[in-house]
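Please check this record.
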Amino acid sequence: MSLLVKICGLSTSETLEAALAAGADMVGFVFFAPSPRNIDLATARELGRQARGRAVKVALSVDADDAALANAIDALQPQILQLHGNESVARLRDIKQKFGLPVMKAIPVETSTDLAALPGYASVADRILFDARAPKDATRPGGLGKPFDWHLLERLDLKIPFMVSGGLDAGNVAEALRFTGAGGVDVSSGVERAPGVKDIEKIRAFISAARAAAATSEPTLTASRA
């Protein structure tokens, strides 16, 4: 299957349009106040209308309660929820049952021990996103521009689709795909000129680089694809 490219943390009509025009498969919107990419519900409603029918809309939240999730879903009308906090397997199951939407669970990775919880999450989630583990003093779990050791995913045996995030940019996305065999890539800070400020040319360059890498390279070892 073809590679899925997700541009996350979009917050303006201009940068969203750039991502859509460049062929992004998924566009992500952040509902988490500490993030510089956080958007309010009115903005989410406008951007959701703009993206409707052109890409998969992803609502990202971090340990959100049901009320916050309901508000985000009502505004954005997403096709999938991205849970980027410390949500338990039971919480994933509850969210899927309550809201009737697919769920993508972010798994923070620094060492091989971080993959121990993967089977439980994979039994409930529809998709897994591997992201770099944030430093202990970080105020948010993602969008920090830090890659993790992609070799940790080389022998991954996962029955559901997965994506890779964390410190990706146009210059290293090919290497990430080569080592992980991921079926999708997710970028946020790697297409910004400042935290939360997307750069149109970087968005275009990233999507182009990802497409070129997917077309010309094979993963180092076989891995599950999206």
Notes: The radius of gyration is 16 Å. Residues 219-226 have pLDDT under 50 and may be disordered.
